[in-house]
Design a protein that fits this description.
single chain; 338 residues; alpha+beta; 8-stranded mixed sheet; 7-stranded antiparallel sheet; 30% strand
C-alpha cells in the first residue's frame, strides 16, 4: 500500500488530495472550492506518474521538513501539509511533512507540478520557475541529427526539465516517410538520454548504451511516461539493465501496465521495423554504439514461457501469432497460465 495525502490553502481555498494505489491501480481524488461550492472529483493519474511522485518523497526538502511530533499543529496556509502511508491496510505506517508555502527548491516545485493540483477559485497552482532554455546539449544534438533519418522528419520532443535524476526526453515521430522514403503509418516514440550513461551489463552483452522505442497508433501521456520511467531505471537502479531478450516484471507481484490489461511484464527486443535495428551503426556516445531496444509488453504467462524456454522460442511464437509491432494493450496472452 502506498498513499500520499496533500493539503494546502491558497487564497482562502483549501486544496486536499489523496493519491493511492490501494486497489492495485493509482487513483487521485481531490476536493476544493470552485465557483463558490465544494467540488470532489477524481483526477487522472497513470502508474509511472504515481511511482515518480512516491519515489521523490525522499528528496532532501522532505527530509528537512519532516514532522516528528504527530501532535504538532500544522498550518495549511503557511505550509504544504503532506502525509504518506505505506505498509499494509491493516497496519499502515505514516510519515508527515510540512513544507513552507514559499519553498523554492526546484525539485519540490517539479514534484508539485507532477501532483497536478486542480484549478479552483484561487486560480492555477504555482509552477516551477524555469531558467532560459539553452537548447539541447551535445548528446541530444547528436541524436537529433540521426533520429529523423530513421523515424521521419516530422517530430516533436517532450523534454524533461528539473528531473529527479537523469533527464530523459521522449521524441514523438509522426506517421510519414523515413529518411529513405519508406512509409511509416504509425507513431514512433523514442527515448533520448538513457544512452548518456553506460548500463552495468555483463561482459558478454554487446551494447552498454541503449535507447528505447515504442510503436503506437496514437501517442498518450501514459505511454510517454512509461518509456521515460523504463529508460531511467538502468541509470538509477543498480543491477537493472536491458538487452535483446531480457524481461522484467511490472512490480512484484506483476501488476497490469495499462488499466484493464493482461500485460504485466516487459520484453526487450531488437526492433523489427525498417532499419531501426541498425541505429547503432549511425549513433554512438564517446565511441560506444547506441542500441535501440523495442519495448514489448507481455503477460506474466508469456514471461514465464521465456524463462522456461528461451527468447528465441517466444519470437517463433510471435511470428506464428502474427504479433503486431504497433502496441495493442488489450491483446490476450499467447500462452496459457499454468
Amino acid at each position: 500500500m502506498h498513499l500520499i495525502d496533500y493539503a494546502h490553502r491558497r487564497q482562502g481555498v483549501l486544496y486536499h488530495g489523496t493519491l493511492s494505489d490501494l486497489d492495485g491501480q493509482p487513483k487521485a481524488t481531490w476536493t476544493y472550492e470552485k465557483s463558490g461550492r465544494k467540488v470532489t472529483h477524481d483526477q487522472p493519474i497513470d502508474l509511472p506518474t504515481f511511482r515518480s511522485l512516491w519515489n521523490r518523497v525522499n528528496l532532501d526538502v522532505f527530509k528537512r521538513n519532516r514532522v516528528r511530533d504527530p501532535d504538532r499543529p500544522v498550518d495549511p496556509d503557511a505550509t504544504h501539509v503532506i502525509g504518506i502511508a505505506f505498509g499494509t491496510t491493516e497496519d499502515p505506517k505514516w510519515a508527515y511533512f510540512a513544507v513552507p508555502a514559499n519553498e523554492s527548491d526546484p525539485q519540490f516545485l517539479n514534484w508539485l507540478k507532477s501532483l497536478n493540483i486542480p484549478t479552483g477559485s484561487a486560480g492555477p497552482p504555482p509552477v516551477p520557475a524555469r531558467a532560459p532554455a539553452n537548447g539541447p546539449g551535445r548528446l541530444a544534438k547528436a541524436r537529433e541529427n540521426v533520429y529523423p533519418k530513421f523515424f521521419g522528419s516530422n517530430w516533436t520532443v517532450d523534454r524533461e526539465e528539473d528531473p529527479d535524476g537523469p533527464a530523459i526526453d521522449v521524441y514523438v515521430f509522426e506517421p510519414g516517410e523515413d529518411g529513405r522514403g519508406k512509409e511509416r503509418d504509425f507513431y514512433t516514440l523514442v527515448t533520448g538520454g538513457m544512452s548518456d550513461k553506460r548500463m552495468r551489463v555483463p561482459k558478454e552483452v554487446e551494447f552498454r548504451r541503449a535507447e528505447l522505442v515504442l510503436y503506437v497508433d496514437k501517442p498518450t501521456d501514459e505511454q510517454i511516461g512509461l518509456l521515460r520511467w523504463l529508460a531511467r531505471l538502468p541509470l538509477v537502479q543498480e543491477g537493472t539493465w536491458y538487452s535483446p531478450g531480457t524481461t522484467m516484471t511490472n512490480g512484484n507481484p506483476p501488476r497490469p501496465i495499462f488499466d484493464g490489461s493482461d500485460l504485466s511484464c516487459y520484453l526487450f527486443l531488437e526492433p523489427v521495423v525498417g532499419r531501426d535495428s541498425t541505429l547503432h551503426d549511425k549513433l554512438d556516445v564517446d565511441g560506444d554504439p547506441v542500441a535501440l531496444l523495442w519495448v514489448v509488453p507481455i503477460t506474466e504467462a508469456e514471461c514465464q514461457y521465456i524463462l522456461d524456454r528461451s527468447p528465441d522460442d517466444f519470437l517463433d511464437l510471435l511470428d506464428r501469432k502474427k504479433h503486431p509491432f504497433v502496441l495493442d494493450k488489450g491483446r490476450r496472452s499467447y500462452v496459457r497460465a499454468k
